[in-house]
Design a protein that fits this description.
With 108 residues, the protein is mainly α. Helices cover 79% and strands 0% of the residues. It has a domain of 47 residues. The chain is rod-shaped.
Length: 108
Amino acid sequence: MPKRQWPGWTSVQTRVTALMLTMALLAVLGLVMSQLSAARRTDAQLAADAAEHGKLLDHTLELEGSSLAVFAKDYSYWDELVQFVQTGDREWASVNIDDGNPVFAVIQ
């Protein structure tokens, strides 16, 4: 019994062309899948970096703000500071606040 072939698939050139097109299609599909995978990995890395930077920023703000919090708490219970706010006595501020800035690491 003779072998049945599809119409138009009888020549070697047609078969080789079909094989090359199939290989090219598989190569393009592989490249697309590779790009999608790389994009997903990049997105995951960016999200991890953003979370890390957020934690570092929070920690930095906490460290920088701790000296200011101590400064504010220390002076908030002081009646003389309330009087200074009311009177604006620059000499008292120079002696009591400006000299205390290095201790509390307050930037002027």
